[in-house]
Amino acid sequence: MAATNYLRSPVRIRPMSRIDSQATLKGPIEEVARVEAEEAEDLLRDLGIPTPFSSRQSPRGIFCSRTLNLRSISAIGYDMDYTLMHYNVIAWEGRAYDYCMENLKKVGFPVDGLAFDPDLVIRGLVIDKEKGNLVKPDRFGYVKRAMHGTKMLSNRTVSEMYGRELVDLRKESRWEFLNTLFSVSEAVAYMQMVDRLDDGTIAAQLGPLDYKGLYKAVGRALFRAHVEGQLKSEIMSKPELFVTPDPELPLALLDQKEAGKKLLLITNSDYHYTDKMMQHSFNRFLPNDMGWRDLFDIVIVSARKPEFFQMSHPMYEVVTGEGLMRPCFKAKTGGLYSGGSAQMVENSLNIHGDEILYVGDHIYTDVSQSKVHLRWRTALICRELEEEFSALIHSRGHRASLVELINQKEVVGDLFNQLRLASQRRTKGRPAQTLAATNLDDHELSESMQKLLIVMQRLDQKIAPMLEADGELFNKRWGFLSRAGFWDKSHLMRQIEKYADIYTSRVSNFLHYTPFMYFRSQEQTLAHDSYSYYCSRFNGSAVDDEVDFML
Questions:
Q1: What CA–CA distances, in Å, run from 493 to 24, 247, 287?
Q2: I want to staple 317 with a disulfide (CB 3.0 to 4.6 A). Which of 328, 329, 523, 550 is the partner?
Q3: Active-site annotation holder among 20, 81, 199, 270
């Protein structure tokens, strides 16, 4: 298939702007830069190429947590599953769920009447294996929403249950973080089986099961589905049913390769599965009879991540199409290998640390461990970003109305608190905060406070359901992926910011940039930044007077 052109914006039928190479560069650099930047924007517009700024305002943008200069990157490594290969979640995870439930049924678990529900969970939630709950923590670890079995818990119940503890992912015996879309099938099966455990339909002969034991049973059933190979055999036989094709993806990698980057494929999948799926997803979109292997300098299958980044394992070269292997100690360009370690890759390429960018979908296995142990630069692929971006756009009106109501309550509440303090001081025979407040008569003070209290109560009745509904365009139970509560970031978003230098919805988004792109992180705002923003909007003594009053 011919290469598709990603520049979809129509080119204007008018004389194209030109960069005048003879134009003088004399004068203040500020003026020279302003003129050149304006001309560059005009030319980009005429060419139909989006500017970096406009690309960031797109669901297909690449978003930057830590500044990354692609010119300093010598090698780019890629995971395969849910990174280079985007599966249809309902199809892939649905079949994984089916095999899991079949295995549970074989050992006596009651699974009749259950069906895969992909909306039950989202990436970034955490399973509480002690309580049989699924929780959504914020960036600090405070639980904001929770579900027991398949039933959402009330805010009061959540507060009573988790008000005195934080989610700590280091306690692996209790908490299980849903790092990737591969976690969806397991989480759905587990939460449904929690319901069966609670209602007593799990047979006594299966043993005295608690929620932890149940989690292990579900995990074993799903593990068998993967190990026995039936699931992957089915996918390999009909990949078109499970894989969403992306014609732009191979072209993005081709740009990087032609720009001099060493491209690596490092996947936990075995050779036969990798070859079959990559052929299906890549070969038809590459030019000049190229095959997927031609894109990569080194291919490593059965990599055993995260151990691949943590320790050294033997490396084997795959020498035949049937997958026969022989031991080797150093990878060579064009080679296909099994196992090994990241340090072997570094030594083979003579490239180390922050010269390598690794791109994957698993926040722990791919992103966290390659950064923590090797200081590789990292990129996270999170396909749900496109849906969340759209949901946020369509929620702007709702969120703006909610912010307005919250601000109104804050002002009303502040006045109520000031009057309450004035009343408190009055009962102790002390003057209020100001002369005007001191001169209020008792009846006026009491009536004002009563009226304000009624207003706040009515505002609460309006705000509460709006807060519950926030994010429902993304997921009715859990809200937005990146947010926990109305104001704060989710625990997943905190992990992304901490470990992923850049993040985006799909690898093909690199095609909308260049292999030489300088990704600059945005300014990080702090709580006290609001004063400088306030001063930037207003001039005059009124601001200074108000600040003097506060001081």
A1: 47, 29, 38
A2: 328
A3: 81
